[in-house]
């Protein structure tokens, strides 16, 4: 129907609304938010990072606890919703293989894998045979080049390719897949990255005779944005920041209020201890780090491969867990570039309805514009016997 968002098909799965709620660690998107999004027809995503650390003090058995908590969150999300539930796993996590295994065993609908290239699956999953697995694998990339590398490896190794790919641009929240100096490079705007990824996956679509939807992420805020990205060739969007300010988001109210209260100038790029730039909301904690103050910590486990525990000025996991609990004095909130636009906390249902209305309005505006283009482009010579002339 005109003005209605199309469905998003990923492999054997169909989402009624082409919105994937981006995974947000640590503990920001769990069963509460993901099930609410799934109930509205989108794809709800549980972030797998640091769940054991957030939920338990049993640091000796942290990997087991991470796995147990993830299983638990998937189980609860399934109880609350019959919709599509995915899990976000970062390759940079030292236990990513185990988390992938848990995701597959728990029959989550999707595994969205970023912060590193998903070149191959853990042996335990390979053994099962990809065709026998319920979970659809969706890599998250920052360039057409990265997509091509992953798809080429999969084609060679598995004689198949992932069912979809998310391309995340530099306006996203959290750790960013770009060097700091590349963040403002105009070639890295999301529309250009989308075009690059569409080109990169085209040969694989043809070889394997399957659709490979490309989903855009990073700074997608309104229904109008969705309309315009779909027109540019995307099949769906991944949105995170806007879902923080919802009643169902799994973070403390203090975390959500930081999103409502922040201003445009508060949105900053930080140099994360794990060696990547990240986008966050500035606060006293980050100002203090910027002034060179260290926050001494003991590392019970090296959660991220890339973290240099000896030089890190603070523990990023501790800082993010504190923020999640609303203790922003000892932590900070990651957020996408548009967080400052949020002015209230609403339900996921209201948010999805609002986005649908924004989408419809934009489609009507664009339709009116294209009609007036047609009108302008009518050539007098043809007017006598031919009404429709090509739109500009
Ligand atoms: C608070 C927060 C935490 C995030 N945590 C993760 C994460 O654990 N893993 C990941 O791959 N991406 C993470 N992201 C990125 C989102 O999944 C998403 O792709 C991105 O933020 C989309 O851009 P948007 O926030 O402008 O909608 C996080 C983003 C935010 C805002």
Describe the protein in words.
This protein has 392 residues and is an alpha/beta fold. It folds into 2 domains: 258 residues, Alpha-Beta Barrel (TIM Barrel); 72 residues, no CATH class. Helix content is 39%, strand content 14%. The chain is built from 14 helices and 13 strands. An 8-stranded parallel sheet has the order 3-11-10-8-7-6-5-4. It has a 3-stranded antiparallel sheet with strand order 9-13-12, with no helix packed on it. Helix 1 packs parallel to helix 3, helix 3 packs parallel to helix 4 and helix 6 packs parallel to helix 7. The C terminus is likely disordered. Flavin mononucleotide (FMN) binds next to strand 5 and strand 11.
Please outline the helices and strands.
Layout lengths: L7 E3 L2 E3 L3 E3 L9 H9 L3 E5 L3 H5 L6 H19 L3 E7 L5 H10 L4 E5 L8 H6 L7 E6 L2 H15 L6 E4 L5 E2 L14 H19 L5 E4 L5 H9 L4 E4 L1 H4 L8 H9 L5 E5 L5 E5 L2 H7 L25 H9 L23 H29 L3 H4 L9
Parallel strand pairs: 3-11, 4-5, 5-6, 6-7, 7-8, 8-10, 10-11
Antiparallel strand pairs: 1-2, 9-13, 12-13
Bound molecules: flavin mononucleotide.
Compact overview of the structure:
With 392 residues, this protein is of the alpha/beta class. The protein has helices at residues 31-39, 51-55, 62-80, 96-105, 123-128, 144-158, 190-208, 223-231, 241-244, 253-261, 284-290, 316-324, 348-376, 380-383; strands at residues 8-10, 13-15, 19-21, 43-47, 84-90, 110-114, 136-141, 165-168, 174-175, 214-217, 236-239, 267-271, 277-281. It folds into two domains: 8-251 and 348-361, Aldolase class I (TIM Barrel), CATH 3.20.20; 259-330, no CATH class.
